[in-house]
Design goal:
By secondary structure, this protein is of the alpha/beta class. The protein has eleven helices and ten strands. Bound molecules: cytidine-5'-monophosphate. Cytidine-5'-monophosphate binds next to strand 10 and helix 10.
Length: 259
């Protein structure tokens, strides 16, 4: 695996020094999903895992329960934060929501590419402008294409006659043309997207399973090593880590499997 960089000390918007582990090219690619319902559980997990993972994902369950304060508290552990709220609204509202997220000092966030090119351009511009104003490192706005829970029938219900693979490719191209620098994709889309997209595009992939865990609702999975070999930049891993008897050991074993 690529060598993992030592944490960097950088200055925050308020002049405080903090540590980040996202370092282009050389960093721990594991994003641990904090898919738990309370701030207490999330912080306990974050503190336990922080040296073994590259970032934490805060999704809508935890954010809706615990609010922006949980983002600040997870950031205070020194870890990078991926805020996965999948914004989808008019361009002006998405731009303002993105600015609010950047002011919370998140390093990655998601928007729906089906919001269209103008919405994506507004989101990217807002992220870049807000980070610049605050003196923060450039955050990554990630586009979500077709949700993995959708199939051809789901797309047809909403008037989209394309099959899911074509729709993913179409939205991915639109996202890149609109200036996004990253996408969320299923592990089974990695190879096709890597062939199609410029090399600088970061691909963030959930649906990772090691084989050691019980079967669950993720149907199309790859192991961490397979996903990295297929072109993933980051691996979003939830239950294989937080559902393990020893989450820290599970994260360390996954990292080890990548070396
Ligand atoms: O527990 P598990 O490893 O399946 O967690 C995966 C995480 O990635 C969850 O937070 C889930 O919501 C998210 N996710 C996903 N599939 C997508 C998009 C996001 O599993 N297509």
């Amino acid at each position: 695996m690529r060598p993992i960089a030592r944490p960097l000390r950088v200055a925050s918007a308020r002049g405080r020094a903090y540590t980040i582990r996202i370092v282009a090219e050389h960093r721990n690619p594991i994003i641990a999903a904090l898919d738990v319902p309370t701030a207490e559980q999330a912080l306990k997990l974050a503190e336990l895992l922080t040296p073994a993972v590259g970032a934490f994902k805060i999704g809508s369950e935890l954010f809706t329960a615990a609010g922006p304060d949980i983002v600040r508290r997870v950031r205070a552990t020194g870890a990078a934060v991926f805020l996965d709220l999948k914004f989808h609204d008019i361009p002006n509202t998405v731009a303002k929501s993105v600015a609010s997220a950047i002011r919370l000092d998140v390093q990655m966030l998601t928007i729906h590419t089906s919001g269209g090119a103008e919405m994506m351009r507004a989101a990217e511009k807002s992220a870049v402008d807000t980070a610049k104003q605050l003196g923060l490192a450039l955050p990554l706005v990630l586009g979500v294409t077709v949700l993995t829970s959708s199939d051809a029938g789901t797309l047809a219900e909403i008037g989209c006659e394309a099959n899911p693979e074509h729709q993913v490719a179409r939205l991915a191209r639109l996202a890149v043309a609109a200036g996004l620098r990253g996408l969320v994709c299923s592990p089974l889309e990695l190879v096709a997207l890597r062939q199609m997209l410029p090399a600088h595009i970061q691909l963030v992939t959930p649906g990772i399973r090691t084989g050691a865990e019980k079967a669950d609702d993720q149907k199309r999975t790859l192991t961490p090593r397979e996903a990295m070999a297929a072109g993933a930049s980051w691996l979003v891993i939830g239950r294989p880590i937080y559902g393990a008897k020893n989450p820290r050991a599970a994260a360390e074993a996954i990292l080890e499997s990548l070396s």
